[in-house]
Amino acid sequence: MGGIERGGAARRGGAMGTHTHMGAAAMLLVLALAALDSASSQETNYTLVMDLTWQFLEIQQSGKLPKWNTFRRDSRTGAWRGDSHLLDGTGPDAVGADLSGGWYDAGDYLKFSVTTAYTVNALGVGALVFEEGYRVAGEWDTLVRHVEYGAQWLIKAHVVASSQPSENVLVGQVGDAATDHNLWWGRAEQQPEGGVEGSVGWRPTWLVSAGAPGSDVAGSVAAAMATASLLLRSDSAYRNDTLATDLLTRAKQLYAFAVKHKGTWRPLRGEDAYPSQSYEDDLALGAAMLCAADPGYVMACNDQVSWWSAAWQNKQYTTNADWENVLPLASVAMLWSGRAPLLVPSIQKYLIDQMRSWMESSVTCTSGTAKRPCYSPGGFAWWGEWGSSRYNANAQLIALATSKLVPQNVGADTKGLLCFAVRQMDYVLGQNPVSTSFLVGYGDNYPQQPHHRGASCVLDITQPCFTPENPLENPQVLYGGLVGGITSGLSDASYLDARSNYQGNEAALDYIASLAGTAAGLHALRSRFPYFCDMRAYCAGTCNATTAYPAVPLPPSPPPPASPPPSPPPRPVTPDATPPAPPPPPPAGGVCLVDGALDACAVMELPFAFLDAQQSGVMASWNRVLADKPGGWKVNSHLYDGEGYDTVNTNVSGGWYDRSGHTKFTLTTGYTVSTMALSGLLFEVGYRTAGHWDNMVQEVRYGAEWLIRAHVVASDVPAENELVAQVGDVATDARYWGRPQDQPERSAIGDLGYRPTWRADKFTRGGDVAAAAAAGLAAAAMVSRRPGLHYDPEFATVCMGHALQLLNYAIAHPTVWRPPTGKASYNTTSVGDDIALASALVCAADFRLGGICTGAMSWWQVGNLEYGRTPAPQNIVRLQYDVDESNVLPWASLVMLWARVAPDSDWQYNAHIQAVVDAWKDTNDPCSDKSVPPCYTPGGFAYFNIDAAANNQPNAKNAAAQMLALAWAQVQQTTAYLTDPAAELPALRANRCWALGQLRHLLGANSMGVSFLVGYSSQFPTSPRNQGAACSVDESLPCEGPNSTRPNVNELRGALVGGYAIGSNEFTWSDVRSNIGGNEPGIADVPGLMGAAAALVQLKASLPVYCPMTDYCAGKCYPTSAAPPPPPPPTPPAPPRPPPPPPNAIACNPMWWWCNQCDYLTALWPDATMRGQCKTCSTLVTYIPNSNNNPTSCHQCFYQKARTVADPYFKIQLLSICLSCTTIAQVGGLGWACTQYCNDPDYISTLDEATECTNCLLSNPLDVSTCQACMTNAYDKLGRQMCYACVNSKLDYYGCVRCSAIIDVTVRTTCYLCLISNSSGWECAYGVQGPPQPASLPPPPPPWPSIPQAPGTFFGRKLAASPEESAAAQPEFGAQRAEEAGREFEAAHAHPAVARTTHGQQQQQQHGSSQSQSQRGGQQQQQQQQRSRTLLTVEAIDIAAFDSGLQQHVRRLRALLMYAGVHGADSGGTAMGQDDSTAGWQASAPIQVVGMEDVQRAEAAYEASGTLFGAV
Q1: Is the distance from CB of 868 to CB of 876 less than 8 angstroms?
Q2: Among the residues of 236-343, which ranges form H helices?
Q3: Measured between alpha carbons, how far is 1160 from 1163 in angstroms, rounded to an integer?
């Protein structure tokens, strides 16, 4: 686009904005550090590029700034933006409409619809094409919010909206270019408004209308509105279907207008900043986005072909992409949407030709160069002197989109396009001959004097701004501003960082609009590569997505030198020599290399590729081995599972193939999901440290989604549930060897395409299968609630619903499942262990399910007895030490300990796990024909096999035992640290180091020197038995047969093969496909390996740098050991072990995942002191007696909308209240309510409101939704307090809420008095014939499920026998906690039901229960009669009628009612009850704000006087 700046030359520039994920001053410090780190490291920080884009957009905001703008002066110290140009649209030459808001275009204060629309379009199309990158980076919600902001101003600019095309009127421009550029250089907040032409305050509004057509502007705005509507309907925190519908309607109106009134727009008077030469490309983009947003809009869908063709005729040789030529953007949009199939070949050729001109690096810029773009000496693709960075950034986005959307077989150079974007972005971000980043805020050398009025002004608004000629740096940093860049392609040094350089040093909206999309696309690609392969290394050809992890030994650390070594002399460099390319980054050391060359991060990551290779159905887009990815070979297969002969007639495609064939089993899928998710929950720090948390959750979710699909009939009636247990026939599967996509489907029995679907139901019972699915879904629910890319509480809720139904089915049908016909692959012999594990995980996911939590212990006992004690068959005794899908009792014991489901029985779980782990560690039992497994091979490998004829995946069992030993050590160590942070238990260290030794054996430290994990090290299986891996992508070639000795065609990366055939001989493994027992991998084999690797990474992260794993295993050091003394002086005696902390101290060990999570979370907040509060909350919640031990609720406080609150004091205090609420509420499992109800600024606006809400929650542990109803429905603060008191008094839920919404305070009081008389809430609020219940009022909550409570227990927890015992059990809380414990004791023991009295009973009690009431005499009775509207008077409320547990709440309600009566009278009346007039009773006076101190004074007055009407 062109623009006019100082003298009439066409100008273009960009701006910058603030990162909206962080608040307060710490945000800028974090970003500055991130920028420095990014610039100094080799890898580009694409997330920071996105963050800086948002910052620039916030700086450019006009009008009244939103609360989330972090540059607002009132948001933090040093912020410099304020509300500005609030009168836009009014005054001389205006339209009389509110046009405030929107974005300033560049370094001035003009606003243009065309550049605003281009910004929304570029951001939006980039987001639609590269959504994955935005979501992986956690930037999707922020993107949608900024798109919504721009779209909201475009709605304002559409000042006349009509279905009649000619009647539409659109604002094209706000402000006059000459006035803005020549008469005002200062703050936007101080520019005069409403002036006449020629004055500094003249801001005219120029329109697009039937009389002043502008198809270019209207078409572009229509496209932006349609784009925004698509994004606002996406899954985000800012989803807004209503706004999306409005935008789509307006887009259609403007598109129809643009088509009918064709022409390019010019302002009525003044300079034309953006003189467009065509409109066909804008209409093509508008039609494309409208057709994508509404495929039923026939007009646009038909028009896009003709408009694109017309634009191509005009612009086929135009190589730039910007606001004036949006044909490249329209082409990308059409390919993405797929709504223009006839144009696809032409679009593909156009984009290939366009980008070929940009990638011709041989075309260098010379003084006579006419061809553009050309290349500068430093490799910058340069197009023009004005805003060259803008053209380059736009070309990056089009190149990257072309590489994704245009296939190679039509001529696209996919890697070349991708690497063009990589290299050009590197240049823009500082990898250039002058080492200057043109993006302000990125790197350590970026522009200091961008041409920008606001940034040139000091904070003191009484002082003038720096003029363009002033040589001083800008007082404000223009974060995110992409400046124009080099002004000549002849020289990379042609950029001048001066405020007067508006050609090369100004920033503007459309400069930055494309850069975020490119960064998102590259970020998504980077996430698919190994950690040691960044984009620059990939483009250099040194690595790719399938490069094996190098096994580089970690060299021993040298002793620290006494003094730094002298710097080497500088290496002479010849003037014309090109420095050598930097070597690829070394593999990550540190925590990944846990023991020499053992790369635990690679061990964690490789199995993800194997699980992707086992995918069935429609392949996930993120599948690592898709056929269209380098080295990939997977395509869609078995799309009709569940349909055909012997099926459920419900599509159950998807999921994972179990082993080498094509059958699918719910038992192993559930086991894989539950074990993998459990490893994440236990070793979250390990997964996050290695960068694989999101990968793990993604795979867990994939498996859980298929389990939900397999639950073909879901019902709350246990017997009515139906669950697919097996897909495919084992015998048929054994007959077919080939590609899964080639296998026939829906065939009859006997054919190769026979794939029956066997289910577990009330006829073919299968409690073990249903429980396995329930365990997987419950575990998936828990990881889905954890922070990360795949955080999805709604999906977690769905998982829990299915898990409960399947668990209830399993409990009602506790039998093992067998298929009705054919062979069973998994002959499980027990069901109690499966139900115990499912019950424990469901309980851990929701501790409110007291019956299930209590039943978990009973089912554990059943499972333990199923495997038997002596005398029992020998094979059963052996099986109790097995750890796989056939025996999940060890995992059940572990979950019981970890989640403290039944802590009174912890000794049993510990004893069980210890017996299993000790059996695995017993090296005194060498393998032989007479050994009882597990036994030991000659090389020291713990080998589990029932007999020599049935090799049952000994490697997988060993890996699972490793994870079990490590997890048990983790749980025990965590418990020990609570009392002694310096504790290091030798037995736990022995378990960890045993697991490490076993893992080393699996990965190659064995007699054969072979890693059994495919893809790890240089020697691994090349022929694992797997049909897909044996078949070429070229379907014309046959597959390698099962008996062929040639290696597999495809590498089955991440597969863990079976292992040795005989434990007494380590040379009994052979790498051939025919080795079914020893060379066949399965999905259930890898989770244990992943968990063991994550545990070791977590352990390594906790060890000091001077404590290598070898020393730790030798007992020489441990996580809390002191650093060794330096070598020169003599070694001092070892320092004494620190004493245990006092009982009231909270010690946070680095191995505790919840503490590490607090460190991560507090980086998002401005106040570092919150870290301690987070750790205290999560630690207390984990170890508090009677708690549900779920510290994630503490973490969730940090994720609520309170993060967006501008006031830092309110933000911190709100968080403190949330953490306090969570700590206490965990006893009843209500931590979630603290975050969802009382920490949400949508409902809470003051600290008093947050406190009131919290008190209500803690008083109503079984009915918390009433507190939210009071909060959202009450008319005012007094109404909320009345509603809370009413709810706490256990009165009618509906009436409490409805009475609080009554505006008239006296009518409201009457309503409450009616409720106390035991009338219904419906009658009190509306009368007997009341209106229909309003939709805005939440329905009453369902009754709490009837859960049998054992004496002295509360939801499966043992209660203290007295408040004193409760307080004594929790000394860390001190006096305050003792008082709270007393209230909890009273609430739990006092009242299962509420005694309510009728109106007549109340009258009798009034006259006979106390002397004080009878002494009130006739005056009170007369007053009662005069208030005929009341059903019961305030003074008739008899506290004694309520039991002791409710007396305090009723007393408070009575005081509030009295207070309302006194303050409800107008100034001319008297207090209620002191006059026989009813005027004060019925009058509506302004309601005064009542605070808690007022309520307390009212209560005190009542207690002192014995009457209701003491002085208030």
Answers
A1: yes
A2: 241-260, 280-293, 298-315, 327-337
A3: 6
